[in-house]
Amino acid sequence: MSADSRRTLAGTAVRGVLWSAAAKWSTQIVTWGSTIVVAKLLDKEDFGVMAMSVVFLGIVSIFVDLGIASTAVTLRELSRGQLRQLNSVSGVLGIAGALVAAVSAPLLVLLFDEPRLRGTITVLGITIFLGGLRTVPTACLRRELDWRRLATIESISGVAGAITSIALAWAGFGYWSLVLNQVVISIVSLIALPRRAFIGYEIPDRTSLAPALLFTRRALTGQLSWYVYSNSDFFVAGKRLGVVALGAYSFAWTLVTLPLEKVAQVVNSVLPSIFAAIRGDIDRARRVLYAATELTALVVFPMTVGLAMVAPDLIRVLFGTKWIEAVAPMQALCVYGAVRSIAPALNNALLANHQERLTMWFSIMFAAVFPAAFWWASAYGAMGIALTWSILYPLFLLLQIYLASRTGVIELWPYLRSVVPGTVSVLLMTAILVLWQRSGPDLSGWSAIAADIAVGVVAYTATVIVLFRSSVERILAILKSAKSPPST
Questions:
Q1: How much of the chain, in percent, has pLDDT values that exceed 90?
Q2: What percentage of the chain reaches a pLDDT higher than 70?
Q3: Does the CA dihedral 81-83-88-89 come out positive or negative?
Q4: Which residues span the membrane (predicted)?
Q5: Lowest-confidence range among 300-309, 457-466, 477-486?
Q6: Is residue 62 part of a domain?
Q7: Rounded to an integer, what distance in angstroms lies between the CA atom of residue 37 and that of residue 169?
Q8: Do 129 and 97 meet the contact criterion of CB atoms below 8 Å apart?
Q9: Is a pLDDT exceeding 60 seen at residue 478?
Q10: How many other CB atoms sit within 10 Å of the CB of residue 479?
């Protein structure tokens, strides 16, 4: 790869990160605002009904996607005709998925003993159908590295969904405000796609799609296993603890993962296309991965720990005492949230280097262990389930990192060093914040939240600047390079 090509790719990557960041942060502000309003208007039971609905529909959505999205982005050698064939497969699967949702709704009513699931699952089936129509067109934009368009679509759909949920919750629609929020987001995301992204359809040919289908099958196995283990906590909580406890747990989960995923995805949503573009240049791919991991850790780690530290006052002030049950699981989940934020970048690097078997088998192992662990931990309530995440997940991720280093995709110690700045800085921040909370003035409400945030920000920023100045300078240099347009 020439120096000009590398500069062009670097500029494209940075612009992708910045456009994604702008979209996700603007959407996050609106989403957080809507979450606060909706949480005040709805009850834990409403969130529990929605969580039960999403558990099943997520599995159907994975079968509908069939790994097509990741295949279309990663396998850049696919022709336009092959993409049209994948588009046909995706459309048919979308229709089938919506029908499966409608037919399965009565069975899920019996499984959870919750009659409201009949209507919610049937209506949410619309999102599966629309997702099938949207999969390949969206993948085409990612292949083109059109981050600006993707960012715009995400912002518009997120704002539309937030307005819908607030309006319906205010009008007294209860859990339907959460359901129709997802429907509106799906509709707007499809309508907002540019015409060029709709590449048309062709009758699928098995021979022509053979390479794509092999990749798709492995990606599907990994995605399905991932979904089983990552959502089995909701299933166990709903089955063992009931809809109200599930509502509190799912609300805590939303508060922890909603802002953190947005930040992590700023980098991770860009990486698959970048890794695909530099496939074969392992040294450059490693540098991209290490930089993305370091940046994610520096941004996300303090957010997760800070959220845990202010959780009691934050929940009480923003959402009211009815959500106080969400505090303990929210604090327990923050460790998991921090560690999880760096995992997608590693998985993207493994997939781009044809190590999908490793990610697939790891997901299968997770799916075999976590559901049983959640079932056992549910005897200790929602807190037990949350602690299971924060204890087991870091151990499994360390094992995955070690095995990834054996494949040659990463070097073990350079990769681990990429999380040192964020880890050390957040540990020092935590120590200072704990000392402040125990020996500082006796504050409450907004004053306590503001003081804790101020102390945490100052402590963390000072630590990063004093101990890890080179990391800050490297990130600033990357941001500065984004001002220059790519060479043509």
A1: 39
A2: 84
A3: positive
A4: 47-68, 89-111, 117-137, 149-169, 288-311, 323-346, 358-377, 383-403, 415-436, 448-468
A5: 477-486
A6: yes
A7: 9
A8: yes
A9: no
A10: 11
Distance of CA 457 to the CA centre of its chain: 25
Whether residue 488 is contained in a domain is answered as no
The string of pLDDT tens digits covering residues 380-426 is: 999 999 999 999 999 999 999 999 999 988 999 999 999 999 999 99
What's the CA gap between 140 and 143, in Å, rounded?
5
Concatenate the DSSP letters of all residues of 26-43 into one string: HHHHHHHHHHHHHHHHS-
Minimal CA–CA distance to 248: which of 390, 50, 7, 81? 50
Within a domain: residue 486? no
How far apart, in whole angstroms, are the C-alpha atoms of residue 72 and residue 173? Answer: 39
pLDDT of 16 higher than 60: no
**CB-CB contact of 21 with 225 (8 Å):** no
Count of CB atoms situated within 10 Å of the CB of 213 = 19
Contact 408, 280 (CB under 8 A): no
- C-alpha angle with apex 466: 260 to 427, nearest 5 degrees? 45
pLDDT 10s digits, 96-119? 999 999 998 998 888 888 899 999
Contacts 24+ apart (CB under 8 A), 465-468: 467/421, 467/424, 467/425, 468/421, 468/424, 468/425
Q: Taking a C-beta distance cutoff of 8 angstroms, is the pair 328, 386 a contact?
A: yes
Residues with Cβ within 8 Å of residue 354, at least 6 apart in sequence: none
- Tell me what the mean pLDDT of segment 18-24 comes to: 60
217 belongs to a structural domain: yes
User: Considering only CA atoms, which of 18, 36, 13, 12 is closest in space to residue 315?
Assistant: 36
Position 231 pLDDT exceeds 60: yes
Residue numbers of the domain that contains 148: 3-481
Nearest to 192 by CA among 163, 161, 146, 150: 150
Torsion of CA 259, 261, 263, 269, to 10 degrees: -150
Q: Report the C-alpha gap between 255 and 264 in whole angstroms.
A: 15
| Contacting residues for 253 by C-beta, under 8 A, at least 6 apart | 233, 234, 329, 333
Q: Copy the structure tokens of residue 161.
A: 């969904």
Asked whether 364 and 352 are in contact (CB, 8 A), the reply is no
For residue 428, what is the DSSP state?
Answer: H
Q: How many domains is the chain partitioned into structurally?
A: 1
CA–CA gap between residue 146 and residue 30 (Å, rounded): 23
Q: What is the pLDDT of residues 325-371, one digit of tens each?
A: 999 999 999 999 999 989 888 988 887 777 878 887 888 888 899 99
Q: How far apart are CA 229 and CA 232, in angstroms?
A: 5
For residues 374 and 388, the answer to whether their CB atoms sit within 8 Å is yes
Q: What is the pTM of this model?
A: 0.74
Please identify which residue in the block is written with the tokens 């999908």: 356
Residue type, 184: V
